[in-house]
Amino acid sequence: MKLSKYSFVIKRGSDYVLYNCWTEKMAVLEDRLREWLESGDVDHIQDIHPEFYDYLLREQFIVDNEVNEAEEVIRKWKEEEGREDCLSLMVNSTLDCNMRCWYCYEKHRANTDLTPETVSSMLKLIRKRITNPKLKSVHISFFGGEPLLNFERIVWPFLKQINDIRNEYHKQFSISFTSNSYLLSNEIIGKMNSLNLSRPIVIQVTLDGNEEIHNKTRHLFSGEGTYKKILSNIQLSLNKGIQVVLRFNCTGHNIRTFVDVLADMKDWKAQEKTNLTIDLQQVWQDSARSDIDMPAEQNKLRSLFLKEGFTVNPLKAITPFRCYADNANHFIVNYNGDLYKCSARDFIKENREGFLTSNGDLEWNEKRTLREKLKYGNPVCLACKIYPLCHGGCSQAKLENERNMTCLKQYSDYDKVKIIKSRVEFLLERFV
User: Fold this and answer.
1) Sheet holding 86-92: strands in order across?
2) Is the bond preceding 145 in cis, omega lying within 30 degrees of 0?
3) Confidence band of 297 (pLDDT split at 50, 70, 90)
4) Of the four listed, 76, 334, 361, 401, which is most buried by Cβ atoms within 10 Å?
């Protein structure tokens, strides 16, 4: 037997923590056990501490000498990716938008409404998939562009047809929107709620700082600010039973202004706070500032909102969970029937990975084939000690760097140890 290459011994205060970045199991080590593990003399532990040896074996801290751990990781990933119990469909009902945010990666285009042909094809697709006895749930998320721009004309008629299928087959359906929420109204919310889904509808909305800073980023074509209207519409949604994920788009220039947002929200009613989840995310296009410690500032902000009774997601940390784009049963349907896997790139012809046929079938192209070929990483990834956590980055990054046979993230050994320590701290803070 041997110590798993994914097992790490981390000093934490006066203790040593044994952590495996594949199983995510941890144990506190006595000093002599640590020495034997680090020396590689794991078989000796069986003689002196058979119960602990069995634990190490059961939790895969130690593995058979012949096992290829990377292959086992990939085998498990393939099982998860191929699950047929959930169909996840992201729909671009339009690529037009009523705002122009500086960091948006999409080229917004007018006259890009979801076509009747694409609607017909999606309904056929859902009807085909829903007859699979393994399928338990269908999730449809509306993206864009701004999906509320054509809610009355396009989205709502489509949702009514989706609801007819739900009532016919009695499968679990859930609906979500990624929206700036400026166009939310009593009428739209009432129609959403009339679907009587088993799960609340979720809307993800973004704020970009306090009123002054937000209105410089998210304003209408006229220049009119949107901050107060967005907050008002969020409250309206929360009081009508809609769940809202309020994303704080943090930059070095706006992070400290979110305390003003707290002042505007802290007196919200208990029901409003119950239906709201705050998610702090750094804008990836943001340039780092030497005078701003972003993680520290986000932690301070998170603590302040938690103190006022809000639910705030844990700060983003490296995680074993992989991108939704890698799941076989998740894909994006553009307004014109083009198919994509990644939602973080512009929806242009060059990026498409297939199209949805008039019969409701998925016709993938060579770009999707290449994504599948590259998504488990290159030989450097497979040999890496933090492969289960990092997995070489997302498949989109691998697709765009297909000839790169080095670490795409350029991690040093120091970086890897730092990542492991950070993950251990994250897990301990959550569960201890």
Assistant:
1) 311-312, 276-282, 243-250, 202-207, 172-178, 137-143, 86-92, 330-333, 338-340, 354-356, 362-364
2) yes
3) very high
4) 334
Q: Burial level of 92, CB count in 10 A (0-12/13-18/19+)?
A: buried
User: Could you give the count of Cα atoms lying within 13 Å of 118 in the half-sphere of its Cβ?
Assistant: 21
Mean pLDDT score, 222-247: 95
Report how far residue 239's alpha carbon sits from residue 222's, in angstroms, rounded to the nearest whole number: 30
SS (H, E, C) 262-331: HHHHCCCCHHHHHCEEEEEEECCCCCCCCCCCHHHHHHHHHHHHHHCCCEECCCCCCCCCCCHHHCCCEE
Neighbours of 32 (CB within 10 A): 11
What is the enclosing helix (H) or strand (E) of 93? none
| pLDDT number for residue 431 | 67
Dist. CA 255–CA 292, nearest whole Å: 9
Q: How far apart, in whole angstroms, are the C-alpha atoms of residue 385 and residue 405?
A: 17
Residue with tokens 């897990």: 427
| Alpha-carbon gap, residue 173 to 86, rounded angstroms | 10
Strands 354-356 and 362-364: antiparallel
Q: Judge contact between 277 and 306, C-beta under 8 A.
A: no
Q: Are the beta carbons of 81 and 328 closer than 8 angstroms?
A: yes
- How many whole angstroms separate alpha carbon 375 and alpha carbon 399? 8
Q: How far is it, in rounded angstroms, from Cα 149 to Cα 180?
A: 10
Work out the number of other CB atoms within 10 angstroms of the CB of residue 296.
Answer: 10
Longest Cα pair distance anywhere in the chain, in angstroms?
77
The per-residue pLDDT for 342 is: 93
> Which residues have C-beta within 8 Å of that of residue 372, sequence separation ≥ 6?
none
Nearest to 389 by CA among 361, 350, 421, 362: 421
